[in-house]
């Protein structure tokens, strides 16, 4: 049932008007008032708070004038002060003449890295991938390898001296939509 669009029920009974229900006074009855009684305690507390605030403002109003009228404290004469000592920090000159020695360990150069981007049964598929790599600006090779499963055509890049160089080229290939390249510690066949 749709309660939002439902029409309200109309009351069949009409309110009855009784003679004594009006707010006018009847003979011998006290008048009925609509006003609520005034809470005098709240009024007294509010007046006390306002009076306290006014007293506070009056008491601090003369403070700034008293401070302005006070004579300023004069500094002692210069002949009573001790002489300014020479700068005792010499680190600026010392740092300028220092040399920093850093002990950098040499990186161990491992075997050369090769990156293989594909291995295919058909040489035409390997050449297609090699052309796609050439379009990315890198040079690759197609190598035929005889394995236990038969003849395979591998598309490889490298050799790279460090893995970082190989990773740089792999990211370049990924930006050119060539995925699946793996970096291996291989020797050139």
UniProtKB/TrEMBL annotation:
Region (Disordered): 1-33
SPOR domain: residues covered: 107-186
Extent of Basic residues compositional bias: 1-27
Transmembrane segments: 38-58
Domain of life: Bacteria
Keywords, comma-separated and alphabetical: Cell cycle, Cell division, Membrane, Transmembrane, Transmembrane helix
Any one GO molecular-function label of the UniProt entry: peptidoglycan binding
Short name of one Pfam family: SPOR
GO biological process, one term: cell division
Protein name: Cell division protein FtsN
Organism of provenance: Idiomarina zobellii
């Amino acid at each position: 049932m749709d309660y939002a669009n439902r029409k309200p029920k109309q009351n069949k009974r009409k309110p009855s008007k009784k003679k004594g229900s009006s707010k006018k006074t009847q003979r011998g009855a006290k008048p009925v008032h609509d006003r609520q009684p005034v809470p005098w305690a709240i009024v007294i507390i509010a007046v006390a708070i306002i009076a306290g605030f006014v007293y506070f403002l009056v008491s601090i109003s003369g403070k700034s004038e008293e401070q302005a009228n006070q004579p300023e404290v004069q500094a002692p004469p210069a002949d009573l002060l001790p002489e300014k000592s020479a700068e005792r920090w010499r680190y600026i000159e010392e740092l300028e003449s220092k040399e920093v020695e850093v002990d950098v360990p040499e990186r161990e150069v491992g075997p050369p890295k090769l990156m293989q981007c594909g291995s295919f049964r058909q040489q035409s598929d390997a050449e297609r991938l090699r052309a796609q790599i050439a379009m990315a600006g890198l040079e690759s090779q197609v190598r035929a390898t005889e394995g236990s499963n038969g003849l395979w055509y591998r598309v490889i890049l490298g050799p790279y001296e460090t893995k970082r160089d190989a990773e740089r080229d792999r990211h370049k290939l990924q930006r050119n939509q060539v995925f699946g390249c793996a970096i291996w510690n291989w020797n050139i066949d």
